[in-house]
Task: structure prediction
Amino acid sequence: MPARAKRLEFEVAVAEDGSARSGLGGPPIPVAEEWKAEHLVLAGLVRCTLASLGYHVRRAGLSVTSSGNAHGVVTQREDGVWGFVEIDAAFAVQLEPPPGADAARELIEKAERGCFVANSLQPRPRYRWSVDGKEIA
Result:
C-alpha cells in the first residue's frame, strides 16, 4: 500500500470590515487600500518559496539569509476570466557555508518545486535567483 501524503490544512476568516484572521490566531491583517488580495497572493508566493528554501537548506546542513519580491500582471485572459497572466519572482540568498554552484542550483530547484503556492498558480512564476551575489540560471 503506498504511503499517504501528509495533509496540511489552513483556515482564514474575513470579517465584515474586511480584516482577515488566521485560524492559528495572531493579529489580524487589517484592511488597507494599499493591500489588495493580489498583493497577498504574491506575498504568499514569496514567503512560501523562502520557507521551502529554508527547509532544504537546513536539511543540507547550511544556514540561509534570504529575501524576495514578486510582480504580477492581472488582466482578462483569452478564456474570458480575469487572473494573473504574468508572475515574476526574484530572490537574493546568502548561504553559509557557500556551497558549489551545482549544490546551489539543486537547492533552488527544490525550493521552487516545494512551494505549494507556486504549484497552485497558473501561470507558473518565472524565477530569478541571486545566490551569494551571483545570478543563478
In short: The chain is about 30% helix and 35% strand.
